[in-house]
Structures are given as C-alpha cells and as structure tokens.
Amino acid sequence: MKNLFVALAVIFVTGCNDQTAAVTKNKNSDSNTAKHSEINETPASTIAGDAATIMSRKQVPILCYHHIKDVPVLPKNSIGYTVTYQTFKNHMKALADSGYHTVLPDQLYDYLVYGKALPEKPVMITFDDTDEEQFTFGKSEMDKYKFKGVYFIMTIAMNKPHYMSSEQIRQLSDEGHVIASHTWDHNRTDRYITGDRMIPVGNKQMKFNDWDVQLTQTKKKLEQITGKKIDYFAYPFGVWNAAGIPEIKSRGYKMAFQLATKRDSLEPLYTVRRIIVAPSWSGEGLIRSMKISFK
Fold first, then answer.
1. What total of structural domains would you count in the chain?
2. Cβ neighbours for 243, distance < 8 A, ≥ 6 positions apart
3. Does some domain include residue 31?
4. Residue 24's pLDDT is what?
5. Does residue 254 contact residue 108 with C-beta atoms inside 8 Å?
6. Per-residue pLDDT reduced to its tens digit, 185-224
7. Which of 7, 44, 74, 215 could bond 115 through an S-S bridge, CB–CB 3.0 to 4.6 Å?
8. Cα 95 from Cα 291, distance rounded (Å)
9. Could you tell me where the beta strands, DSSP code E, fall in 92-160?
10. Which residues of 245-261 are buried (b: 16+ CB within 10 A; e: fewer)?
C-alpha cells in the first residue's frame, strides 16, 4: 500500500481552489454557564435522532475557511477561497463582539440527535485542506477569543511545504480543536468506485479501494497522530451523493459536512451545511450572511 500511495501522489490535488469549476458551489464557553437561546427550544423526539426531528431543529451557522494570506489586498486573479489575515481578524472580532460561542462537532451531534442544549449564539468555524496558515494565522487569532475550530485534513498534504505538519495537527488536537477527515487526496466522493479495482503501479497491477484509501486509511492515520477517535468528515468540494453515504457510515463516521447545497431530508447528519466565507465580507457582512444562510 505504501508503494501505491507513492505512485499515486503524483496526481495530488492540492485543494478546493484548484478545481473551482467542480463545485456547485469564543469565546468558547462552558455550556453549563452560558445562556441558552432559541436554538435549544426544540424538544427531543421520542425517537432520538430520527431524520424528521433533526431537520426540524434550527440550523447552527457553520463557516468554512480555506486560505488565509498575510497580504494587505488579494490579487485580482485570486479566487473566492482566500481571505486576507486582516479580514479573518475582522471576522473573529465580529463574532466575539456579537456574542457568538464556538461549538464543536460532538456538541452539534448531541444537539441534533438528542436535543441537548447549545450555548447562546453558537457558531462552528471549520477549515479545509490542511494549509499551514490555518495554524499560524487561524489558530493564533482564534486563541485571542478562546475560540475552537474544526480542521478537515487531507492527509496527502501533511508535512509538505506550506501545509501543516503532523506535530501542528497534534498540537491543535491537544489544545481542544477537532481534527477530522477530508480524504487522502481530495478527490470527489461521488466519483469513487465501490469495491476493489486494479490500477497499474510500475510493472504490476495492484488492488485499490477508493473508500478504504480515502476514508479508512486517513481515519487511522489521523487517529495515530492525535490519539483520539476521528468521527467527522467533510466532502471535497462539498460534493456528495446518496450512494456514498452508506460507505461513509460503514467506516465509523458520525456526521459528514458538505457546503451550501440543500440538506438531504433522509440523511441530514451526512449532509450538514456550511458556507464558504467570501473574501469581500466585512465583519458585519459575515454576521449578516450567517443569519440569512442559516434561518
């Protein structure tokens, strides 16, 4: 398998911004002391976690960041996955000033499935693609407000230039951030083949199982790094299909995160919505967009 990974690494897809056309596209507070808001008022169903009850609960705003650049102004040809460091700082300050509290996937899961209370004004901050500035800029800025985030890691990128190292990923986990899977090499899950297929590696043919390589092996790798169970997954490019959900479930993932398309009413835990943060949004614009997107 190691030789197979080495051979396939030459087709490494470096992140969401390389395939834009493919996309249809806290104050971290103790919930025992934080005030509770209207988001907690929906009573738990008699059947914990049934899809209709999950769909009826008010959605939690979930933000998705990719690249954070320490430049005053983005280049004109920059695509919509990049924000400046100053913009990110403005966003974090706006969230804090507006009274938002960051929540993590376990809290969201317990809220959706069991109706457990969340802090007042919950928000989830997520990062895709393993970029190093998510650690150097993102974490350092969130630390000011005791915010915690979710880092969706594509494991092929780890320890490469401009990407996070295993040590940085472990530090994030140790400090209370959540590490989650974003596949091995960022290929879209709706293109995976179920079962083994043979691919050429040098002069040999080797078995390759898309789901095992992209979800099972990455899960094991991240668990080795963090020493914690990896329960959550984000679809590359936010693209999902119904056929892939049983494969994700069978590999032990409790929830899967897409981007801004409509949730599946039968599988809301595996089509959790996020929004990509636009580089043009001010702090006030971010808050306004959250309210509009997660009514």
1. 1
2. 190, 194
3. no
4. 39
5. no
6. 999 999 999 888 887 878 888 888 999 999 999 999 999 9
7. 44
8. 12
9. 101-102, 122-128, 149-153
10. bebbeebebbbbbbbee
Measured from the Cβ of residue 102, the count of other Cβ atoms closer than 10 Å reads: 26
Q: What is the CA 186 to chain-centroid distance, rounded?
A: 13
The closest of 48, 41, 51, 15 to 266, measured between CA atoms, is: 51
The pTM assigned to this predicted structure is 0.86
Count Cβ atoms below 10 Å from residue 54 Cβ, excluding itself: 22
Q: Residue 276 is part of which domain span?
A: 2-8+51-293
DSSP, residue by residue, 228-250: S---EEE-GGG---GGGHHHHHH
| 30 falls within a domain | no
d(CA 241, CA 184): 19
Q: Return all residues near 276 (Cβ < 8 A) that are at least 6 apart.
A: 25, 64, 66, 80, 81, 259, 260
- Residue 35: other Cβ atoms inside 10 A: 11
In DSSP terms, 65 is beta-bridged to 127
Would residue 28 count as lying in a domain? no
CATH of the domain at 255: 3.20.20.370
Q: pLDDT digit string (tens) for 102-154?
A: 999 999 999 999 999 999 999 999 999 999 999 999 999 999 999 999 999 99
> Which residues, at least 6 apart from 47, have a Cβ–Cβ distance to it below 8 Å?
53
Question: Directed axis angle between helix 283-293 and helix 85-97, to 10°?
Answer: 60
Asked if residue 121 is part of any domain, the answer here is yes
